[in-house]
Amino acid sequence: MAVLTPVLTGGNGTPTYNLGIAETYSWIPIQNDQNRPMYARAGYITNFSDLTISLSAATLNIGNVKIQDGNSAAVADVVQAGVNYALLVQTQDLASTLDSVTIGDTNGRTATVTNSGVNVNVRSNVSNWDTLSASINTNTFTTLPSNLASVITILNYTGDIIYIKNAAKSLAFPLANNLSVDINLIGNTNEVAIRSNSQTVTVYGTFTLYV
To answer: Does residue 18 contact residue 29 with C-beta atoms inside 8 Å?
Structure first.
């Protein structure tokens, strides 16, 4: 394969162009290993906006492509990941005395740290609240009416003990007269079932739905 090298600059003030070939001096001498003089014609493209280059190939290999940090000049590494290759991502060991990490939301509000712990404020909006009642007997557990709810407060003003349980379970706990109990729900008041102790009575509850 021939080795061709264009001579674009000259030394000692000697022109590099062949003044006898073209009065426009647009012929550039080419150093070569073919033992004969060679010249190339320089072209001047003035309409770059109209220049279009199309490349099509079944297999295209592009070499010497790198991702480099503009400040430190550090170059990203490519490592094997299974049968493929991927950019190497390194973890950073943060020191509490040197580094600062902030937890915040998309509105720019940041979390507050107290005694080396992040303050957590649980805020729930009340979507609905209401009261309910149910007539209960001594023979079977009565499931409370269905209402969407997050928590229910059951009031025992029956004059006797009542028994409360998860409607899907068997074990119940007693609730004495003139007492109340708060029960966190999965999502509905019908998760609770109640039985009376000695007579048919009416129980009341207040339920709240949070969103």
So the answer is: yes
Tokens 């061709």, located at residue: 4
pLDDT of residue 171: 95
Name 142's bridge partners.
194
Question: For residue 77, what pLDDT is reported?
Answer: 85
- Provide φ and ψ at 48, rounded to 5°: -60, -30
Count Cα neighbours of 85 within 13 Å in the Cβ-side half-sphere: 4
pLDDT at position 18, please?
54
The residue assigned the tokens 């609770």 is: 192
- In this prediction the pTM is 0.45
> What is the tally of helices (H) and strands (E) in the chain?
0, 15
Radius of gyration of the chain from its Cα atoms, rounded to whole angstroms: 43
The DSSP bridge partners found for residue 129 are 208
3-state secondary structure of 165: strand
Q: Which residues pair with 175 in a beta bridge?
A: 162
pLDDT under 50 in the chain at which residues?
22-23
Kindly give, in sequence order, each residue whose CB lies less than 8 Å from that of residue 129, ignoring residues fewer than 6 positions away.
Answer: 206, 207, 208, 209
Domains, the chain, ranges and CATH?
1-46 (no CATH), 126-210 (2.60.120.10)
Instruction: Answer whether 70's CB lies under 8 Å from 80's CB.
Output: no
